[in-house]
Amino acid sequence: MPQRTTPEKARQGRRGFPVLLVLVFGLLLAAVVWWGVEVYGLMLDQQQAIETPASRDQPSG
Description:
Layout (H helix, E strand, L loop, with lengths): L6 H4 L6 H41 L4
């Protein structure tokens, strides 16, 4: 006679709080990295805007 298994024991994996935490923290980490890249990009744009006019004012030749 085959053994009977409960549905909870037969499941391959659990869903719930730990999975939700991993997904939320992953999303937060991605947002923080995105924000950091945006700030870095703005700093580079500002630096280029400061340096560009000075190079145009110099005589060529």
